Amino acid sequence: MLSETIEKALNTQIHLEANASMKYLAMATWAEVIGYNGVAGFFYNQSEEERVHMLKLVKFVNERGGKASIPSLDAPKDTFKDLHELFTVFLESEEQVTESINHLVFQTLEEKNYTVHNFLQWYVAEQAEEESLARTILDKLKIIGNDKSGTYLFDKDIEGIVAQT
Ligand code: OFO
């Protein structure tokens, strides 16, 4: 069973994951229109992943005797100065999701709800992975700076990251 507090917190998480999916879709669109096809592929992929994260939560809440609430979504930012800003927004979004997951984990410990605690471990690991990926990409972009051929190669390179996921 889910307490009211945990059900509410899980529903907040559903909202965050759904918003992340839309944010990344807007980022994919921005990149695709400019011609960064590798980056667009990366964010289409991320958007899909976030939808899967959301669905996992929806099913879990419903199976545990709660009711998933399907949120209306915020309009995502869809214009970016450059790739550096794009990936900075990505990192910030992931940090926000991590903070929320950590708080949720804390709440499950307070309530001694080990079933939900256990379920959330997958999200804890996923967040660590996503944050470190965002940081690695930002480091690369810092090295590239304004170099045009470096940016071209970066866009090609990132296709490899999509292929691995
Ligand atoms: Fe689901 O928010 Fe990141 O991965």
UniProtKB/TrEMBL annotation:
Localization annotation: Cytoplasm
Residues annotated as binding Fe cation: 17, 50, 53, 94, 127
Enzyme class: oxidoreductase
Pfam families: Ferritin
Keywords on record: Cytoplasm, Iron, Iron storage, Metal-binding, Oxidoreductase
TM segment ranges: none
Gene Ontology BP term (one): intracellular iron ion homeostasis
Any Gene Ontology CC annotation: cytoplasm
Reaction it catalyzes: 4 Fe(2+) + O2 + 6 H2O = 4 iron(III) oxide-hydroxide + 12 H(+)
Keyword Cytoplasm among UniProt keywords: yes
PROSITE patterns: FERRITIN_LIKE
PANTHER family per the UniProt record, alphabetical: BACTERIAL NON-HEME FERRITIN, FERRITIN
Annotated family: Belongs to the ferritin family. Prokaryotic subfamily.
Role according to the record: Iron-storage protein. May alleviate iron toxicity in the presence of oxygen.
Protein's UniProt name: Ferritin
